[in-house]
Structure formats: C-alpha cells, structure tokens
Amino acid sequence: MNNIFVYCEIEDGKVADVSLELLTKARALAETLGCRVEALAIGHNLAGIEKQLAQYGAEVVHVADGAELAPFRTLPHAAIICGVFKEEQPQIALFGATCTGRDLAPRVSSALHSGLTADCTSLEIGDHSEARTGKEYKNLLYQIRPAFGGNIIATIINPDHRPQMATVREGVMKMEPVANPKAAEVKTIDYKKFLNDGDFAVKIIAREMEERKIDIKGSPIIVAGGYGMGSKEGFDLLYQLAEMLGAEVGASRAAVDAGFTEHERQIGQTGVTVRPKLYIACGISGQIQHTAGMDGSSMVISINTDPEAPINKIADYAIIGDVNAVIPKMIKYYKQNSK
Prior knowledge:
The protein is an alpha/beta fold. Helices cover about 30% and strands about 25% of the residues. The chain has helices at about 15-35, 50-55, 75-90, 100-110, 230-245, 255, 290, 310-315, 325-335, and strands at about 5-10, 10, 15, 35-45, 60-65, 90-95, 115-120, 120-130, 135-145, 150-155, 165-170, 185-190, 220-225, 250, 280, 300-305, 315-320. The strands form four sheets. A seven-stranded parallel beta sheet has the order 7-11-6-1-4-5-12, sandwiched between helices. Strands 14-13-15-16-17 form a five-stranded parallel beta sheet. The model has no long low-confidence stretch (mean pLDDT about 90).
C-alpha cells in the first residue's frame, strides 16, 4: 500500500533502459518517503525477470506471465495495470514516455481518475500549501517539465488523487544499479480476473521490429550542430570532426527543421536526451528546449559567435568565433597532436 510503482517495458526478456532509469529514480523518491519500490512486469516467459529489476532497486515485482500478454497490446496491459493499482493503491506510478508508455499511461490515468503529467524532466518530493483554503499537503510528487514551448519550467502537483502519475523520457534520469542488491519479492498477478474478451479484440497478425539506424544516446562524445552551421554542407564539418574524435553527430531542432540533418539526431525536449562525457555545441544558441536534452553532459564546449548565447552559461569552455573557422582549426590541430 502507498508504495511507488514502475511499469517496466520488456522485449524478449530484456528490460528497457527507460524502465531501469525510472527504478533508479524511484529509489531516491522512496528513500525520501520511507516506502518501497515495486515493479510491474507484464508479458511472457518472464521467469527470472525479478533479478534484472532487483539490480536497479525493485523490492517487489508483480508478474503477469502469459502467452496472450506478449507481444504488447494496449487493452490487456491497461486492464491489468488498473486492476493491480486498485488492489495495491500506490501513491506514485511512473511510466516511460515511449510509444508504449504514452499509450498506456493516459488510459490508466483516465480509468482511475488520477491525473497524469507527461514528459517530465525531473521528479522531486515536496510540500504544498493551498493559498485559497490554507490546506497543507505533505510529501507530494513534484512533476517538473518544460511548458509553453519550453519557455518556462512548470512544477505540477496532484494533491487529491492517487496514484500521482508521470511519464519520463528515456535518458532524462540516470540509470544506476544498486551497490548491494537484495533479492526482490515476487508476487504473481492473477491477471485473468482483470480481463474480458473485449480486451483481445485486436489481433496481432504480423509484427516487424526495425532497429534504430542512428542511435546517439550511448555515445560518450557528441558533436552537435545548430542553425548556426548555416547549411547541410556546413554539417559536413561536424561529421569530419566527429570521425576524428570517435564521436556521434547531434543537432538542435532548428538545424533538423532546416533540413541540415536527420531527425534521429535531434537532441532536446522534442528529440533525445543524452549524457555524454563530452558535448561540443557548434552554432547552437542554447534555448531551454535544447539544453533540456543535454545539460547532464559531463563537459560542454560551445562554439558560437555570440558571447551572450545561453549555451555559454552552461558550457565549461566557450569559444567565441565562427564555427566555419574554428572547427577546421580543431580538426587540423587534432591531427597534428594525435600523430
């Protein structure tokens, strides 16, 4: 009762990174609240899945294992989650802001009348005082996310309904295993009592999975370009520098919208979130929509003609100059020094 639940996405016996990131965050929230972290695993052939989840802090794993539950279908998964939440009464429920999470979480929230905040970039525990009534609320989930096109950071609370629900995009939270993990308690879900024939109205005839052609999330070094690169040809300089450094090329939304590079390389609020050891921002102004996706980088180097550009405020090193002049010099001297 009143614990934190994380819905875990599982494909071929492997838990999605975003679910492990949420378990990591849930541990910190649970420590503040003095409650337990519980995971929901729904699918088929899930024997031993609790071992993966315990590595990241799951203390209890609720398992619904059946051939009809894989691959993922919205209605049966939503019905099982609603049934478990009604029985277990969690105070917080977290989902990944993936195709699956964005499909499931609103359905569950609507069915339970609980409210939902999408695409959170931070989750914290705090108190709230209602100015109109003077009522005091303790230990609420602060659901923090960019709003109004990324121009402000909004803190959203849900004081009166449970569970407090949020979705979080992949890469926003750190994924850290427990130093000394303990075996998780396994609770088998009697899932058939939550389902009816209508939940299986959609039949899966064929299923195709396409691997990502470009995956910059795991790269330790990213060379990212913005609209300041000027053109698609300007981006060729970034590819040259990235090849020298063993890096991946990223981009701001403005650069992608201008057709300088593929959408799969877009970093920021409407792209991917990255945490490289080194992030080189070239011709990027640094609006909050972009920095929301890369401000967890260990070191940031910015190259920009504008000394007042917002990116310079978060950069460890700021180079004031034209990218078309600076980057060729970086390539030249890197070649000289690496011989």
